[in-house]
Amino acid sequence: MRRMIGSLFGILLLFAALSVLWHVAMVVFDVKTYFMPMPAKTFATMLAEWPVLQKNLLQTLKEGLVGLLFSTTVAVSLATLCVSSRTLMQATMPFAIALRSVPVVAIAPLITLIAGRGFATSVIVVTIAGFFPIFVNAMRGLTATRLNALELMHVCGASKAQTFRYVRFPFALPHLFAGLRTAAPIAVLGAMLSEWLTGTAGLGFLILDAASARELELLWSAIILSMLLGIVIFWSTAEAERFVLARST
Prior knowledge:
There is one protein chain. The protein has two domains: 1-31; 42-248, MetI-like (MetI-like fold, Orthogonal Bundle). It has helices spanning 2-28, 39-48, 50-84, 86-101, 104-115, 119-142, 147-155, 160-198, 203-212, 216-248. By secondary structure, the protein is mostly helical.
């Protein structure tokens, strides 16, 4: 709890310092307010428009978390199957690399045609965006098990499922959480990208709508919240890693 409070205090302190630098830069370089608003007015708008911001923030958060859950489930399940079958691994890796190489923005219109303009499209986009780092790290973790531990399980007559449960998965946890830490900010970006393309509610759509209406204070309020959301999800993943690894040792 003390570490969590310290981390939250550090995040707030960082944003306070950035706000001061923001204000100083606006004054020193004489930046016009029709290019970028003053931080005080931005934070005042954030308080005044909080009901709208909160609604869109929760929508983006829900899309990111559900998509991250799906990408983790699919990636870990597929990595487990690939470790069990070398043939499947050789057949799957080219498709995983190809999926990673294709820009999500290029296939998002196709996803929209299939799933429609709504929550499902955002979840699919986030799942695709977060799949590869989790899959690669899960594969690396599941194949990084110590040889003597595998030999011990074989000598004891353990089944393949027991070997995965008691040996491979515990050894893979640090690698899996490394993939989750990488995919967590990507989940927020993927959700916002889907909102930009489909016009559904969320921080991405709010940023686009505020930019078209030249409501710069609302625009920067949404940008700040999206940054905070990415930081909080990343930090929550790191805290979950500490908790799980402490329980598993």
